[in-house]
Design the sequence.
Protein backbone atom coordinates (compact mmCIF):
# COMPACT_ATOMS: atom_id res chain seq x y z
CA UNK A 1 0.00 0.00 0.00
CA UNK A 2 1.03 3.62 -0.30
CA UNK A 3 2.88 5.23 2.58
CA UNK A 4 2.35 8.83 1.60
CA UNK A 5 -1.41 8.88 1.17
CA UNK A 6 -1.57 12.60 0.49
CA UNK A 7 -0.30 11.78 -3.03
CA UNK A 8 -2.71 8.90 -3.60
CA UNK A 9 -3.00 8.00 -7.27
CA UNK A 10 -5.18 4.90 -6.89
CA UNK A 11 -7.72 3.34 -4.54
CA UNK A 12 -8.40 -0.25 -3.50
CA UNK A 13 -12.08 -1.24 -3.31
CA UNK A 14 -12.80 -3.89 -0.69
CA UNK A 15 -16.14 -4.75 -2.28
CA UNK A 16 -18.25 -7.39 -0.55
CA UNK A 17 -17.03 -9.59 2.31
CA UNK A 18 -17.55 -13.33 2.21
CA UNK A 19 -16.43 -16.47 0.43
CA UNK A 20 -15.94 -17.03 -3.29
CA UNK A 21 -19.21 -18.99 -3.38
CA UNK A 22 -21.08 -16.03 -1.90
CA UNK A 23 -19.47 -13.72 -4.44
CA UNK A 24 -20.63 -16.00 -7.26
CA UNK A 25 -24.19 -15.90 -5.93
CA UNK A 26 -24.07 -12.11 -5.59
CA UNK A 27 -22.65 -11.79 -9.11
CA UNK A 28 -25.45 -13.89 -10.61
CA UNK A 29 -28.12 -11.97 -8.65
CA UNK A 30 -26.83 -8.50 -9.43
CA UNK A 31 -26.13 -9.38 -13.06
CA UNK A 32 -29.74 -10.55 -13.41
CA UNK A 33 -31.06 -7.35 -11.83
CA UNK A 34 -28.79 -5.22 -14.02
CA UNK A 35 -29.77 -7.06 -17.22
CA UNK A 36 -33.50 -6.82 -16.47
CA UNK A 37 -33.11 -3.12 -15.70
CA UNK A 38 -31.35 -2.46 -19.02
CA UNK A 39 -33.87 -4.50 -21.02
CA UNK A 40 -36.83 -2.90 -19.25
CA UNK A 41 -35.59 0.63 -19.82
CA UNK A 42 -34.75 -0.11 -23.47
CA UNK A 43 -38.31 -1.43 -23.97
CA UNK A 44 -39.71 1.78 -22.47
CA UNK A 45 -37.56 3.95 -24.76
CA UNK A 46 -38.51 1.86 -27.79
CA UNK A 47 -42.23 2.05 -27.02
CA UNK A 48 -42.18 5.79 -26.42
CA UNK A 49 -40.36 6.39 -29.71
CA UNK A 50 -42.48 4.23 -32.01
CA UNK A 51 -46.07 4.62 -30.77
CA UNK A 52 -47.99 7.87 -31.19
CA UNK A 53 -50.26 7.03 -28.26
CA UNK A 54 -47.27 7.59 -25.97
CA UNK A 55 -46.32 10.95 -27.48
CA UNK A 56 -47.24 12.99 -24.38
CA UNK A 57 -45.20 14.91 -21.78
CA UNK A 58 -45.34 12.14 -19.18
CA UNK A 59 -43.94 9.49 -21.54
CA UNK A 60 -41.46 11.97 -23.00
CA UNK A 61 -40.06 12.46 -19.49
CA UNK A 62 -40.24 8.72 -18.83
CA UNK A 63 -38.15 7.99 -21.91
CA UNK A 64 -35.41 10.36 -20.76
CA UNK A 65 -35.64 8.97 -17.24
CA UNK A 66 -35.03 5.51 -18.65
CA UNK A 67 -31.93 6.76 -20.50
CA UNK A 68 -30.61 8.32 -17.30
CA UNK A 69 -31.31 5.17 -15.32
CA UNK A 70 -29.41 3.02 -17.82
CA UNK A 71 -26.43 5.38 -17.73
CA UNK A 72 -26.41 5.67 -13.93
CA UNK A 73 -26.35 1.92 -13.38
CA UNK A 74 -23.80 1.39 -16.15
CA UNK A 75 -21.41 3.84 -14.48
CA UNK A 76 -21.27 1.76 -11.28
CA UNK A 77 -22.71 -1.76 -11.59
CA UNK A 78 -20.24 -3.26 -14.14
CA UNK A 79 -17.34 -2.24 -11.89
CA UNK A 80 -19.11 -3.88 -8.94
CA UNK A 81 -19.67 -7.08 -10.95
CA UNK A 82 -16.03 -7.14 -12.04
CA UNK A 83 -14.94 -6.77 -8.43
CA UNK A 84 -17.03 -9.81 -7.47
CA UNK A 85 -15.11 -11.93 -9.99
CA UNK A 86 -11.66 -10.88 -8.79
CA UNK A 87 -9.90 -12.87 -6.04
CA UNK A 88 -8.59 -9.76 -4.28
CA UNK A 89 -9.33 -6.06 -4.04
CA UNK A 90 -10.20 -4.06 -7.13
CA UNK A 91 -7.68 -1.32 -7.99
CA UNK A 92 -9.13 1.93 -9.35
CA UNK A 93 -7.07 4.90 -10.47
CA UNK A 94 -7.71 8.36 -9.05
CA UNK A 95 -8.86 9.57 -12.47
CA UNK A 96 -11.28 6.67 -12.90
CA UNK A 97 -12.62 7.15 -9.39
CA UNK A 98 -13.14 10.87 -9.97
CA UNK A 99 -14.84 10.24 -13.32
CA UNK A 100 -17.15 7.62 -11.88
CA UNK A 101 -18.06 9.87 -8.97
CA UNK A 102 -18.82 12.83 -11.23
CA UNK A 103 -20.92 10.85 -13.72
CA UNK A 104 -22.84 9.05 -10.98
CA UNK A 105 -23.73 12.27 -9.12
CA UNK A 106 -24.48 14.25 -12.30
CA UNK A 107 -26.75 11.59 -13.77
CA UNK A 108 -28.42 11.06 -10.39
CA UNK A 109 -29.09 14.78 -9.99
CA UNK A 110 -30.60 14.96 -13.48
CA UNK A 111 -32.70 11.89 -12.68
CA UNK A 112 -34.12 13.46 -9.52
CA UNK A 113 -34.94 16.63 -11.45
CA UNK A 114 -36.82 14.57 -14.02
CA UNK A 115 -38.69 12.82 -11.22
CA UNK A 116 -39.75 16.27 -10.04
CA UNK A 117 -40.76 17.29 -13.56
CA UNK A 118 -42.90 14.16 -13.93
CA UNK A 119 -44.54 14.87 -10.59
CA UNK A 120 -45.30 18.46 -11.66
CA UNK A 121 -46.68 17.13 -14.94
CA UNK A 122 -49.11 14.87 -13.07
CA UNK A 123 -50.00 17.71 -10.71
CA UNK A 124 -50.92 20.00 -13.62
CA UNK A 125 -52.85 17.21 -15.36
CA UNK A 126 -54.95 16.52 -12.25
CA UNK A 127 -55.33 19.98 -10.72
CA UNK A 128 -55.44 22.17 -13.83
CA UNK A 129 -56.51 19.94 -16.75
CA UNK A 130 -57.99 22.76 -18.86
CA UNK A 131 -54.61 24.46 -19.17
CA UNK A 132 -52.56 21.26 -19.32
CA UNK A 133 -51.86 21.36 -23.08
CA UNK A 134 -50.89 25.03 -22.84
CA UNK A 135 -48.61 24.69 -19.82
CA UNK A 136 -47.03 21.38 -20.80
CA UNK A 137 -46.46 21.99 -24.51
CA UNK A 138 -43.63 20.38 -26.46
CA UNK A 139 -41.41 23.46 -26.18
CA UNK A 140 -41.73 23.51 -22.39
CA UNK A 141 -41.07 19.80 -22.07
CA UNK A 142 -37.96 20.02 -24.24
CA UNK A 143 -36.57 22.85 -22.14
CA UNK A 144 -37.32 20.98 -18.91
CA UNK A 145 -35.32 18.00 -20.15
CA UNK A 146 -32.43 20.17 -21.36
CA UNK A 147 -32.28 22.05 -18.06
CA UNK A 148 -32.38 18.77 -16.10
CA UNK A 149 -29.42 17.34 -18.02
CA UNK A 150 -27.35 20.54 -18.05
CA UNK A 151 -28.02 21.50 -14.43
CA UNK A 152 -27.22 17.99 -13.22
CA UNK A 153 -23.79 18.04 -14.85
CA UNK A 154 -23.00 21.62 -13.81
CA UNK A 155 -24.19 21.36 -10.21
CA UNK A 156 -21.89 18.45 -9.34
CA UNK A 157 -18.66 19.99 -10.66
CA UNK A 158 -17.79 21.76 -7.43
CA UNK A 159 -18.62 18.91 -4.98
CA UNK A 160 -16.56 16.42 -6.98
CA UNK A 161 -13.71 18.90 -7.45
CA UNK A 162 -13.65 19.61 -3.71
CA UNK A 163 -13.81 15.90 -2.82
CA UNK A 164 -10.81 14.92 -4.93
CA UNK A 165 -8.75 17.86 -3.70
CA UNK A 166 -8.86 16.50 -0.16
CA UNK A 167 -5.69 15.07 1.38
CA UNK A 168 -6.07 11.30 1.81
CA UNK A 169 -3.65 10.74 4.68
CA UNK A 170 -5.17 7.70 6.42
CA UNK A 171 -5.35 5.00 3.76
CA UNK A 172 -6.24 4.40 0.14
CA UNK A 173 -8.58 1.47 0.80
CA UNK A 174 -12.29 2.15 0.29
CA UNK A 175 -14.63 -0.14 2.21
CA UNK A 176 -17.13 -0.17 -0.63
CA UNK A 177 -17.74 -1.56 -4.12
CA UNK A 178 -17.51 1.82 -5.88
CA UNK A 179 -16.06 5.29 -5.23
CA UNK A 180 -18.47 6.37 -2.52
CA UNK A 181 -18.22 9.96 -1.33
CA UNK A 182 -18.71 9.09 2.32
CA UNK A 183 -15.89 6.56 2.26
CA UNK A 184 -13.59 9.04 0.51
CA UNK A 185 -14.36 11.59 3.19
CA UNK A 186 -13.52 9.07 5.92
CA UNK A 187 -10.07 8.57 4.42
CA UNK A 188 -9.39 12.29 4.33
CA UNK A 189 -7.52 14.22 7.00
CA UNK A 190 -9.42 17.39 6.01
CA UNK A 191 -12.33 17.16 8.45
CA UNK A 192 -13.68 20.64 7.98
CA UNK A 193 -17.33 21.45 8.52
CA UNK A 194 -17.42 22.94 5.06
CA UNK A 195 -16.78 19.54 3.50
CA UNK A 196 -19.40 17.92 5.71
CA UNK A 197 -21.90 20.60 4.75
CA UNK A 198 -21.07 20.02 1.08
CA UNK A 199 -21.90 16.29 1.42
CA UNK A 200 -25.11 17.17 3.23
CA UNK A 201 -26.24 19.60 0.54
CA UNK A 202 -25.55 17.00 -2.13
CA UNK A 203 -28.42 14.94 -0.73
CA UNK A 204 -31.01 17.53 0.34
CA UNK A 205 -30.81 20.06 -2.50
CA UNK A 206 -32.75 18.04 -5.03
CA UNK A 207 -35.39 16.54 -2.69
CA UNK A 208 -36.24 20.06 -1.50
CA UNK A 209 -37.34 20.87 -5.05
CA UNK A 210 -40.17 18.33 -5.02
CA UNK A 211 -42.59 20.94 -3.60
CA UNK A 212 -45.65 19.39 -1.97
CA UNK A 213 -46.36 15.73 -1.36
CA UNK A 214 -49.64 16.23 -3.19
CA UNK A 215 -47.61 16.58 -6.37
CA UNK A 216 -46.19 13.07 -6.24
CA UNK A 217 -49.18 11.49 -4.54
CA UNK A 218 -51.21 11.95 -7.73
CA UNK A 219 -49.43 8.91 -9.13
CA UNK A 220 -48.63 5.83 -7.06
CA UNK A 221 -45.72 4.84 -9.27
CA UNK A 222 -44.01 8.20 -8.75
CA UNK A 223 -44.58 7.95 -5.01
CA UNK A 224 -43.07 4.47 -4.80
CA UNK A 225 -39.96 5.32 -6.82
CA UNK A 226 -39.38 8.62 -5.02
CA UNK A 227 -39.70 7.00 -1.59
CA UNK A 228 -37.17 4.26 -2.46
CA UNK A 229 -34.74 6.54 -4.27
CA UNK A 230 -34.85 9.57 -1.97
CA UNK A 231 -34.78 7.63 1.31
CA UNK A 232 -31.82 5.52 0.16
CA UNK A 233 -29.91 8.55 -1.11
CA UNK A 234 -30.60 10.53 2.05
CA UNK A 235 -29.25 7.64 4.12
CA UNK A 236 -26.06 7.62 2.05
CA UNK A 237 -25.26 11.31 2.53
CA UNK A 238 -27.14 12.68 5.54
CA UNK A 239 -24.77 11.33 8.18
CA UNK A 240 -22.45 14.12 9.05
CA UNK A 241 -20.28 12.16 11.49
CA UNK A 242 -20.04 9.09 9.20
CA UNK A 243 -20.48 6.71 12.13
CA UNK A 244 -22.72 4.14 10.43
CA UNK A 245 -21.26 0.75 9.61
CA UNK A 246 -20.00 0.11 6.09
CA UNK A 247 -22.43 -2.79 5.72
CA UNK A 248 -25.44 -0.47 6.01
CA UNK A 249 -23.84 1.90 3.51
CA UNK A 250 -23.45 -0.94 1.02
CA UNK A 251 -27.09 -1.97 1.46
CA UNK A 252 -28.31 1.58 0.86
CA UNK A 253 -26.08 1.84 -2.22
CA UNK A 254 -27.50 -1.41 -3.57
CA UNK A 255 -31.01 -0.02 -3.12
CA UNK A 256 -30.08 3.03 -5.21
CA UNK A 257 -27.92 1.32 -7.84
CA UNK A 258 -29.50 -2.13 -8.26
CA UNK A 259 -32.92 -2.57 -6.64
CA UNK A 260 -34.52 0.75 -7.57
CA UNK A 261 -33.45 0.61 -11.27
CA UNK A 262 -34.68 -3.00 -11.37
CA UNK A 263 -38.12 -2.04 -10.00
CA UNK A 264 -38.68 1.22 -11.88
CA UNK A 265 -39.51 -0.26 -15.33
CA UNK A 266 -42.14 -2.51 -13.73
CA UNK A 267 -43.55 0.25 -11.52
CA UNK A 268 -43.91 2.75 -14.35
CA UNK A 269 -45.36 0.27 -16.85
CA UNK A 270 -47.42 -2.35 -15.03
CA UNK A 271 -49.40 0.34 -13.20
CA UNK A 272 -49.99 2.25 -16.44
CA UNK A 273 -52.99 1.06 -18.46
CA UNK A 274 -52.08 2.92 -21.65
CA UNK A 275 -48.52 1.60 -21.68
CA UNK A 276 -49.59 -2.01 -21.11
CA UNK A 277 -52.13 -1.63 -23.93
CA UNK A 278 -49.47 -0.34 -26.30
CA UNK A 279 -47.09 -3.10 -25.23
CA UNK A 280 -49.69 -5.79 -25.93
CA UNK A 281 -50.44 -4.31 -29.35
CA UNK A 282 -46.74 -4.19 -30.26
CA UNK A 283 -46.18 -7.76 -29.08
CA UNK A 284 -49.23 -8.89 -31.04
CA UNK A 285 -47.94 -7.18 -34.17
CA UNK A 286 -44.51 -8.75 -33.75
CA UNK A 287 -46.10 -12.16 -33.29
CA UNK A 288 -48.13 -11.73 -36.46
CA UNK A 289 -45.02 -10.71 -38.42
CA UNK A 290 -43.11 -13.75 -37.19
CA UNK A 291 -46.07 -16.01 -37.86
CA UNK A 292 -46.43 -14.81 -41.44
Sequence:
Amino acid sequence: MLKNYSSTIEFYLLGFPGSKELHNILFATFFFFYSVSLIGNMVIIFMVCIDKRLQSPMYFFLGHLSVLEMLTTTVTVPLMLWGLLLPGMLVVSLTACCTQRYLYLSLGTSEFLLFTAMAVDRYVAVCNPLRYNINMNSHTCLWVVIVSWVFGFLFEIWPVYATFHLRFCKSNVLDHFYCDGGQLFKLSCDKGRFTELMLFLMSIFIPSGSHHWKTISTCASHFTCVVIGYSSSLFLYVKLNQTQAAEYNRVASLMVLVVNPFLNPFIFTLWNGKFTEVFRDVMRSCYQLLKD
Notes: Residues 18 and 63 are 38 Å apart (CA to CA). Strands lie at 10-13, 90-93, 173-174.
